Amino acid sequence: QVQLVESGGGLVQAGGSLRLSCTIPGGTFSSYGMGWFRQAPGKEREFVATISSSGSYTYSADSVKGRFTISRDNAKNTVNLQMNNLKPEDTAVYYCAAAFGVTSVNPRMYNYWGQGTQVTVSA
């Protein structure tokens, strides 16, 4: 049983910044590739960013590349998503996810998910 918890969502004006965080239990975190996904009302869940278990590799969706940065601190069992220059189209529920032994853009590869945190960007 692995519980993921996201935090840091909120309301921000276009052009502003937010930092999301996610935690999982110690002793397992370093074995997982981590990812961030998002889902807007009426839309399918989409990939945002991923980071390898060691933190040596990262990849982001084209829609957020250059604006969002994923990072992790294995000593603290956390993964973060720094979101800069936010746009109204970034409005969605953001989910943290863990994939055992892989780094992937495919949500089907992820074993555990958080409950999500709302990000709202006003025009």
Question: Would you give an account of this structure?
Answer:
The radius of gyration is 13 Å and the shape is globular. With 123 residues, the protein is mainly beta. A hairpin with a 6-residue loop joins strand 4 (32-39) and strand 5 (46-51). Strands 2, 4, 5, 6, 9, 10 and 11 form a seven-stranded mixed sheet that branches. The chain has strands spanning 5-7, 10-13, 18-23, 32-39, 46-51, 58-60, 68-73, 78-83, 92-100, 112-113, 117-122. The chain has no helices and eleven strands.
- Overall shape: it is globular
Low-confidence stretches: none
Overall radius of gyration: 13 Å
The assembly state of the depicted protein chains is single chain
Topology:
Elements: E1 5-7, E2 10-13, E3 18-23, E4 32-39, E5 46-51, E6 58-60, E7 68-73, E8 78-83, E9 92-100, E10 112-113, E11 117-122
